Batch of 2 targets.
Target 1
Amino acid sequence: MEYLKKPAVRPEEETEKKVADVAAIIADIRKNGDEAVRAYNTKFDGNTRELFRVSREEIDAARAKMTPEEIEDLEAAAKNIREFAKAQLNCVKPLDGVSVIPGARLGHRVIPIASCGCYVPGGSYPLFSTALMLVVPAKVAGVRRVAAVSPTVKGTTEIDYRTLAAMDIAGADEIYAIGGVQAIAALAYGTDQVKAVDKIVGPGNQYVAEAKRQCFGQVGIDFVAGPSEVLAIADESADPEILAADMLAQSEHDRLAKGILVTTSRKLGEEVMAAVERQLKALSTAEIAADSWHNYGEVIWAESLEEACAISDEIAPEHLEVCIREDDLEPVVEMLTNFGSLFIGQETGEVFGDYVSGTNHSLPTMRASRYTGGVWAGTFLKVCSFQRYNREAMMAVAPLVSRMAKGEGLMAHKHAADIRMK
């Protein structure tokens, strides 16, 4: 393994200050409710609206601004996401009739959560695709109340019209023009205008991520997301121009985003680096993409595909592309275990997953793919066990329970078993 391009060390955030700032906002909203939400909306977004919930008239006005083609594009993307979510849901089945001893019946039920909040970022870009990725699988899973939130366009009282239309097309039951920490706190603890939810999903900036972390327990979350990242494993057969384009597609997200190339060809690595510089000259988002690539982009030369896979699994990227010879694809894919979403073959660009392939683009970052996958229909489900004993089964296990409870010193537990045998 050798670095052809080594990244700078990402700056340590002012963690203590951030944690304290977020905690103060959450505490203020818990105490002062809508008044505090309104104050932070005004302070951070210039959003002075009194009623946070977006009306049907506002939604219709947003849809009216869309061209027919834009509406059709959103509906086509939503359809693909919906169909894949339905297929995923079909894999999660109730279980019944398991009998480990005569007279016992065990199983589990698959139960949708009652409500969820979907955080759709605003910031530098109107990420309307994220509205589809969060709301659609929640509705497919059977969540009765899906509340979508998003910051308003800076200095206005309105969510970007494309994001608002996407939320509506996706099937959101309620939409609120609230962003940032105040949106997470309102969804977690509730205010007069915003009823609390059971789970919050969706990406955001470092303050939104910290707010989700602090509210976890009061409310469920998907995961704590950080800056976006892509890793591509490539051999000499890959196209350097395509790989460069994929590195920049990730880099333009923000200045802390990360594009990583792991290649078995030193020549390809050098060609990709040269192609990135050429493509930057024609890129309208070059200011952000260049900062991200120059500071945090990585190009790593690996001696073999096996070593490339080991490097990738250690990094555990959010998005993982495999751009190698067709004959090697299947064995390499089998070696890979740590990734948020996998893109197999050069034709399968990561950007397709961002929008229309049907898989979800709300994915784990910062090595979290070691222990979790991304948002899917199952994110919004609870798998809850049940058991039923007849007297024969009860009499068979009660003595065992009694002895184990006694061994732990829990005498009321022992009594609860013993009393049933009398």
Target 2
Amino acid sequence: MSSSLRAHPRTRWWALAVIALTQLVVVLDGTIVSIALPRAQQSLDLSDGQRQWVVTAYALAFGALLLLGGRLSDYVGRKRIFMIGMVGFGAASLYGGFAQQGWELILARGLQGAFAALLAPAALALLTVTFPSGRDRNTAFAVFGIVAGTGAAVGLLLGGVLTEFADWRWCLFVNLFFVAVGLVGGALFLSESRADGDTHYDVWGTITVTLGLGALVYGFSLAENGWGQPLTIAFLALGAALLGAFVWIESRVAHPLLPPRIVADRVRGGAFLIQGVAGAIMIGATMYLTFHLQFVLGMGAFTAGLATLPLPIATMVVAPLATRLLPVIGPRPMLIVGPLLAAAGMLYLSGITPDGAYFLQVAPALVILGVGMALVFVPLQNLALTGIASEDAGVASAVANSAMQIGGSIGLSVFTAVYAASVGGHAQRDVTAQQLTDAYGWTFIVAAIFLVGASVIAVCMVRGSKDELMPAHGELAVAAH
């Protein structure tokens, strides 16, 4: 059983606001610097490869350390880890804002990701134990899912505003506001909870999964130089071998970092895979959209940020409707249709031309993409955590977050490789607007293929009746499996 202090019914909605704010900041930080990258690249004299790593360093550190962060929150205390993560995240943001060289910015982004890996699973675990069952749980998870789904797009808009009217460095300094609100709100409204019983740490599991994910993502990042390069193959093989070792270790240790029961469930495993695809789209594909808006269409950072608004607006408009529909039809139809709609949006976007009108070629695609992603995000978080034992809430929450961040890292690396292959490995300044547009179009086509794959995953893995997939309105298990 989990020993937790339940939030008072009148304060738990304030707790939801604090938790949603936390999710917003860790998700938007995956993209807030994307729209500022052209300015940051010029200011710090970054190469094209270093430019990608400003985004990848955050997502990689975040995704690779999430499992450890989730287990720490279960054992040390979810509120305590939440507060530690907040302070560290703020310090890393401050350091990045004052960076004078490219490596300093990349290091700061990695540190941000590491502390976000403490914050995110602690926040989602606190949400899980604060809203254990019933209609309120569905509402809370819908709110959380909407924030998770639109946070990346909000990051693009906020990044555009700050870059245009202040300085790209404020894309990092702005986090201090979120940290201050999170610390005060956390102290006032969050209740401590932790897992009871034995709290041994899985050292070898932590080492293998962290290094394995790191090697895998780094291998994908090297693929822009060619999939057949020895170093690319070596890192991809090393990552796969280390992750295989991690699976072997987890099946044999007494206190695994990732208990096999969490991912062994077919439905939950499918939800995690779909979440990975969602991360690839919202983190990876949206970055190349902002490049098209700025480098080809000639928009400033603020205008480019505004130009991404149809995506989050469409998601936020459709999400309440999807939330009401979820108990009626269940999650499976949404997770089949949603990715297909989103894929249609990406295919529409792949038809961009250098002189094409934004309102004809881009805006409609973003609306279609936003509608599709709303149908994905509303059921996804709830489905991923349904039936989880309360003592596993932190690590299960970490898997859900990790799937999105690692999906984002791998997706960005794959899209970068597709882009590099399309422009023949030439630097951006050496290619024409038509070549850039063609390259971005190919990344959007690959993104559409990813989304069709997510729909197939839903067909094959998210199986069962509505009541089987959402027992007792998404009730949280209170005993160990």
